[in-house]
Design brief:
With about 120 residues, the chain is mainly beta. Helix content is about 0%, strand content about 55%.
């Protein structure tokens, strides 16, 4: 049974920072690609950042230079450091990892609200 539990969301003013964490109960965590997605009200869920088992990262253009994804394999945890937050970053943020059969596992999400 795969469980992904996000934490660290909250409310901040524009220009502020937050650090999201995703604790994963999954076998062979270090082998998994881990992703952060977000979904704003009325919008589709979008990929924010991803990190491969080898540590390669990718980011949505809208967050490049502001967000940093990292992982701690000893703790089975992936992080999303978010700086210079903007009101348009307001969304529910979800942790994700691909499943073995083309499916995917998702956390319950954590709310991030950025006020201007």
């Amino acid at each position: 049974q795969v469980q992904l539990v996000e934490s660290g969301g909250g409310s901040v003013q524009a220009g502020g920072s937050l650090r999201l964490s995703c604790a994963a109960s999954v076998s062979f965590f270090s082998w998994k690609t881990m992703n952060w997605y977000r979904q704003a009200p009325g919008k589709q869920r979008e990929l924010v950042a991803g990190i491969s088992s080898g540590g390669s990262t990718n980011y949505a253009d809208s967050v490049k230079g502001r967000f940093t994804i990292s992982r701690d394999n000893a703790k089975n945890t992936v992080y999303l450091e978010m700086n210079s937050l903007k009101p348009e970053d307001t969304a529910v943020y979800y942790c994700n990892t691909p499943g073995p059969r083309g499916d995917a596992y998702w956390g319950q999400g954590t709310q991030v609200t950025v006020s201007s």
